[in-house]
Design goal:
368 residues, alpha+beta, 2 domains, four-stranded antiparallel β-sheet, globular
Length: 368
């Protein structure tokens, strides 16, 4: 998933651009990343109060600059019920700078999905710092260690968590990034199932080597294309295909959603009855916050790290796992993941076996 020539890098994000970003990031979020409406409203309010956010190209970050991603962590269904107030971001930044003993020059999304595409905008606006046009996944993944940055040796710690009650938890050291995930997840459960987190501090060289570049601009371009297709009454999938390589893998109607919240994650399976060209067939989508595996008639059609995103069949509106309901007619889309995920150091972090499936990764060809 690379930025094509059709995607113009964004230099400033204002209130209107936030809506485009949230829409496109919902598609890239593969069903997870938290409800985009919450993050968009928070970002728009912060920009309205403090002014637009400047967007910084990864190439413009100096080698000695400290960039710190911020995000929501926890089960998406819980985040929807416990909307953050924004002050949590101030708490994690104060805690982080205390541990690092140097100022943060910029922030960025850790993932390109849902609420976590826009939460960093709240911090950027409140602090008057730029947002880097990059992220650590090019999509959304459910666990702290599942980032491209970790594959490049960037440590998840120091890691600081804060909740809406003002509780702050700091992890100053860990044996590895997976251990940081276990410790952070235990703290999030104790905090009621959701929190704000600051982690994966990196410099300009690490950013250029291992972050997914220009993913913020890509999400905005996808959002604008979806809005334009909706206004014109044209096919939304065809509108975004040239931008991100999305293509239909299955069309159907939701017949069942099995969903549970456990250990800070939303896990489950979505069942579909085929429609149109897929009439007479059935499909299932397994998810852990995000969509992981798509099967039909016993065959695996797509799997992580590639993106499996569901959109409402008529409008092209991207759908989250917590918003999925019986009877919705959907297109299941496949989108090639960032090439970074196919590097030998990165693939083991997010291939199907990382989620407990005895399935080999299937690389989706980018047909753009």
């Amino acid at each position: 998933m690379n930025v094509t020539n059709s995607v113009t890098p964004v230099e400033v994000i204002d209130e209107e651009t936030v809506a485009d970003l949230a829409l496109g990031a919902t598609l890239l979020g593969t069903g997870g990343g938290g409800d985009p409406r919450v993050g968009a409203l928070m970002a728009q309010a912060a920009i309205r109060e403090h002014g637009p956010v400047r967007v910084l190209s990864p190439d413009a970050v100096g080698d000695d600059g400290l960039v710190v991603p911020v995000a929501m962590i926890g089960a998406p269904t819980v985040i929807l019920e416990r909307i953050p107030g924004g002050h949590e971001l101030d708490l994690v930044m104060r805690g982080f700078e205390h541990l690092q003993d140097r100022p943060v020059i910029a922030t960025m999304p850790i993932e390109a999905g849902g609420i976590n595409s826009t939460i960093p905008l709240v911090l950027a606006a409140r602090r008057g710092i730029p947002l880097v046009d990059a992220d650590g996944m090019g999509r959304a993944f459910p666990e702290v260690q599942m980032v491209t940055l970790g594959a490049g040796g960037v440590r998840a710690w120091p890691l600081v968590l804060a909740d809406e009650s003002g509780n702050v938890v700091s992890i100053s050291d860990a044996s590895d990034n997976a251990a940081a995930e276990r410790l952070a997840r235990a703290a999030v459960v104790a905090m009621g199932g959701s929190a704000v987190v600051a982690h994966y501090a990196l410099d300009g060289q690490q950013l250029r080597d291992w972050a997914v570049p220009h993913s913020v601009s890509l999400a905005i371009a996808i959002g604008r294309a979806l809005k334009r297709a909706r206004a014109e009454g044209s096919d939304p999938v065809e509108a975004i295909g040239p931008i991100c390589g999305a293509r239909r893998l299955f069309t159907g109607q939701v017949t069942e959603v099995a969903r549970t919240t456990q250990a800070g994650f939303v896990r489950g399976q979505l069942s579909l009855k085929g429609l149109d060209v897929d009439a007479g067939r059935h499909a299932e989508v397994d998810f852990q916050n995000e969509n992981l595996i798509l099967r039909s008639e016993g065959a695996v059609l797509a799997a992580v790290p590639d993106l499996i995103s569901l959109v409402e069949a008529e409008s092209g509106q991207p759908l989250t796992t917590e918003g999925m309901r019986y009877g919705i007619r959907v297109h299941v889309l496949g989108i090639p993941s960032s090439p970074i995920w196919w590097r030998p150091e990165a693939l083991p972090l997010v291939e199907p076996r990382a989620f407990g499936y005895d399935i080999d990764p299937i690389r989706m060809e980018d047909s753009r």
